[in-house]
Each structure stands twice: as C-alpha cells, then as structure tokens.
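Objective 1b of the project was to move from sequence-level analysis to a structural picture of ligand recognition. The entry below was assembled by the postdoctoral researcher (A.K.) and checked by the PI before modelling. It contains the amino acid sequence of the target and the SMILES of the bound compound, zinc ion.
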Amino acid sequence: MSDTKCFLCGNVAKSSTQHNNKLSGSNYTDPRDRHIDPFVTQGDIIEFYECPICGFYGVDHVGVVKDKFNDDDKSKLSQLAAERHLHNKTGFILSQEDETVFVNNLPFNKMETLLKDYPQDAIELLDRAFLNLSSYFSHPTDRWKDGYTVRMPSLLFTAPNKIFEILLQFKECGWIKFIGEPISSSSPFQITHNGWQHLRELKKRPTGDSQQAFIAMWFDENRKSFYLEIEKACTDTGYKALRIDNKEHNEKICDQIVAEIRKSRILIADMTGQRGGVYFEAGFASGLGIPVIYMVTQSEVDKIHFDTRQYSHIVYSNENDLYEKLKHRIEATVPITQK
Ligand SMILES: [Zn+2]
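Corresponding predicted holo structure:
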C-alpha cells in the first residue's frame, strides 16, 4: 500500500489497486468476442483505501467513476464510512451496481444504495451523531477536553467548522453540559444524566446495525417451501430471517412479535392467505420507519386489501420466481450487508 489522498475525505490514506477478478456481472466480457465495454477497456481495477477516518473500502473502476461523484456525495459517503468504521462494521466497494460478490470481504454497492443509510432528517442526524460521539465516553465523569479528533466532523455528519454548532444543539437537547464559563469551542464537556438516558433509548431502536429480517406470513404447512426461499433470499443478501410461529398464540400479536419487529432492519410481508396478523405486523413496522417489502402469490393479487394495494407488491408465480424477485428487492431496499 502506498500513501495517497483518501478518495472520499481527502485525508492522508494508504491505497492499493487490484484487478477485479470476480468474473461475473455485467462487465465481464469474453476476450474472444472482443465486445468493447468502456469499463473493461479502461481496466477493470478496484482501488482500495485504508483511511484513518473512513476505514477500509474500495472504489470499482476508479479511473472511470472518479468524476461521477461531487463533493457533497463524497462527504456523505465519508460520513457513512466513518460511522461503519467506528462501529467495526464492514466497508464497501463503491461500484456502478449492487452485487453480492465480495472482494477482500467487501460487498459491491452503488452510491444510491449506500446513501439510503444516510440520516433521513435532522432528528435522526442528531441522534446518530450523538450515538457516535458517545462511543468516546464510558463513564459519567468522562470529559471531552483534548480538542476534536480528526474523525469528529464525519462522526457528527458535519463540516469541521460546524462541530461546535452541533455540540450546541446537543446542549440545547440537554444531552451534554459544558464545563466552565464562557462556553467556547474549546470548552470541555460531559454527557448529562438526560444524555445517558437518551442513549439508552436510542440503543433500543432498530439501527443500520441490525441484520434481522422479520418475516410476516401465513404459516400454513403448504407455505413452507415458500418460507424456505424467503429465508434463502435473506441469507444471500446478508440478512437473518426471523419468523415467529404464532399458531400457539391464536394469531394474537404477542409482546415477542412487537419486540422482534422493533429490532429488525426490514420486514418482509407475504400477504398470501390474507392473515390479519400479517397486515398488523406490516403496518406496525411501517409506523416505526422500518422498510416493508410486500409480496403475494399471482393467484391472490385481486384479494389484497385495498389499504395496502397502493404499495408495490412483488407478485410471484412459484418458489424460484419468489427467490429471484425478493433478492433483487432486498438489494434495492436496504444496503447489502456482509454474510
Ligand atoms: Zn477517508
């Protein structure tokens, strides 16, 4: 690895290049038919970076895509990468397409998929920034007093000159208190009792870290082969399928179901069989902001209740069709995680 500038954040990083030998996907051409593909002719090369802020990640076809990303895209991607790095999560290979192949244990993701994980609004941004900041604190008496680390702007989803403004917002929320007067950008600060309590609540919520996919469906014996394909589509995209057989509960929504939905990153709702419980679970997840993938078998398309008919359903004809369509929908809905 040699010294260079990080593609995303511009700080000093190490980099190395590697030929992309995954030999699959749209960019692979058989040399015998000399089909000219702009990506292949430019050299199918991935540049890997090891950055103290963004962690370990790659850029596919680096020569070709370099100009495709503007500074705002790069800064958001850097912030997401820094957050993953902080929580010891896998990086990614920035690519033209999402693919479930791994090079150096990193999945290929396109920018649009990665950016789905960016905070959706100011509240989520402040919450996640505060969670990131709190990883530097372990005890109520801990103080931040040594100036800001080089990772701080990324972890707080902001620019270096705006760190203090974000900290003032934390103070407004009652999460931190500055020590000494007057307050300045060099004042030490601590997490307050309120702040610790808020952190406890935040850690209970589903986050990008969860790899659980909650499966809401009719658990009839002849649906079993379909369930197995759903499970396989989840596994192949890095998610862990969870089903709670609610037969014993007479289809009552039990506390366990509610708790597991809260912990899930995504909910897959198969409306086949028109079970009330499935509608409830999909609605509950939706209300929590958890993405819901609706699906139904071809023969029951007309039976879907009109409340959910407005949502795009995967319509499948058999198990294999279900697997292919669901896998693609998961990839398009949430970032692909590592298996
Ligand atoms: Zn970087």
